[in-house]
Amino acid sequence: MIHIVIPVLNRWYFTASCLHSIYNQSYKNFLVIVVDHGSTDGTSEKIRSNFPQVVLLKGDNGMWWTAATNLGVLYAINNNADYVLTLNNDLIVYPNYLENLVSAIQKHPNSILGSISLDKNNPEKIVFAGTKWNPFIAKYRSTINLQYSWGKIMRDYFLIRSELLPGRGTLIPIEVFKKIGLFDEVYFPHYAADEDFSLRCQKEGYDLFVVANAAVLSEIDATGIKSEHQKKTPKYYKDLLLSQKSPVNLKLRWSWARKNSPIPFVYFFIDYMRIIGSEIKKAFYYEIGTNSTVYIQKTRYA
User: Fold this and answer.
1) Which residue from 114, 127, 97 is spatially nearest to 165, judged by alpha carbons?
2) What pTM value is reported for the model?
3) Helix 250-260 to helix 264-301 angle, to the nearest 10 degrees?
4) Average pLDDT for residues 22-32, to the nearest whole number?
């Protein structure tokens, strides 16, 4: 049986859509575990009312993704699960999603299987389909050309090898947790625990693949600190560097370098120089866009 672990903190509208899509699956041998770690929008009450078959675990608002997910994984371990599937509540899946994952894991049992990520607003647009990662120069790139449509990927591939896997739809045999432990709450309380876990799996001899015909549809703007169209104030940069909600906060990036790179100081320096360069570019384009808008408005009403 697959135990599907979904950590939630508010955003009931996402959770409801996610659960509806799960209970519309052609494959039925699964149990959904929702870990509510501090919702104030009535999420738990609405789950009990609308989805009574869900196992609802209560965390606390001091938890982030990793601790909440680990709570669900521990339940799965203690209740004879065969696999754990990690999902976020801002994802929805097609009716054959679980069936395709199970078919793939049966053919490749010594594997950790990830999912294709698609833009929910443009379901042929691929957001993630595997990653190549350089542990020396902090360079990430997609395994395949993300300009391809999902239809083409399904025609050309069955499995796509990846060097890292996120937690957005990753199927993990329960024996893996028993062998290498849970997600790392100490180094990675929110971001990067999923990719770190996949690296640990790889070191233990497990293959990492993305299943080409198993896709999650993502609300790609629903997580993290938004930066593309946000004014770059001192508070923005403070949050970017220090907030747990930021995927590029200093502590997180140093923890990743320290734990996973053979040359952590060099890796961290290169990584953060790249991030700073990206932020400078975003600030420049933000100002250009703002000034252009002001100019157009002035000429329009002159």
Assistant:
1) 114
2) 0.89
3) 150
4) 97
